[in-house]
Input
Amino acid sequence: MNRKGILAVVSGFSGAGKGTLMKLLTERYDNYSLSVSATTRSPREGEKDGRDYFFVTREEFSRMIRDDELLEYARYVDNYYGTPRKYVEGELEKGKDVILEIEIQGALSIKERYPDSLLIFVTPPSAKELKKRLTQRGTETEEIIRKRLKRAAEEAVGVENYDYILINDDLEEAVLRLHRLIQDQHMRVGRQLDFISDMRGQLADL
Ligand code: 5GP
Output
């Protein structure tokens, strides 16, 4: 059996509830590792360096790119975001299912690099609900919310390259669905070829 972990990429409209989904998923099941990204954006209130993001300067971010420390990176609304390579590769090796919560450009470059990664796009049930959630969060100015809604419309453009759409209407149901989707990947034929080959050997010996 292939013991290497699944690389799952979760994207979705800003305000789709990804953060809450990830939090519940990792609290409830212990097979997941959540990658912490590096970003040049300033911390929001309550955000902690090393837990929510590694908050770095533009210079430090450029150095990380130069030294090939990022699996992927992208620019999103005036800032840079990137996935640290070492942590992700180490956790996958240990057999952990690693989750990247990243935007679409990054997701697509991960798929190119790791064709057996799983790309899931999370969306609220409607555009109206999306705006409501973004406004209720209260952490962004009106100008930023407008920019994010505009970007959300653009994000739907590449969605056909994802593997699954997850509509986050009922949070409990969404957590369970996400967990099942990721766990089902362990049963993919491509990951079980050693098992089948062993079976065939054993059958020949009977
Ligand atoms: P926020 O500023 O709201 O925390 O994140 C903005 C966007 O950047 C979100 O869509 C989030 O998923 C994405 N993001 C966070 N980390 C990364 C990363 O490492 N790489 C990429 N490509 N996007 C990221």
Q: What stands out?
A: The helical segments are 18-28, 58-66, 85-93, 104-113, 127-137, 142-155, 171-184, 193-205. The pocket of guanosine-5'-monophosphate is lined by residues 14, 37, 41, 72-74, 76, 81-83, 101-103, 105-106 (CB under 6 Å). The chain has eight helices and nine strands.
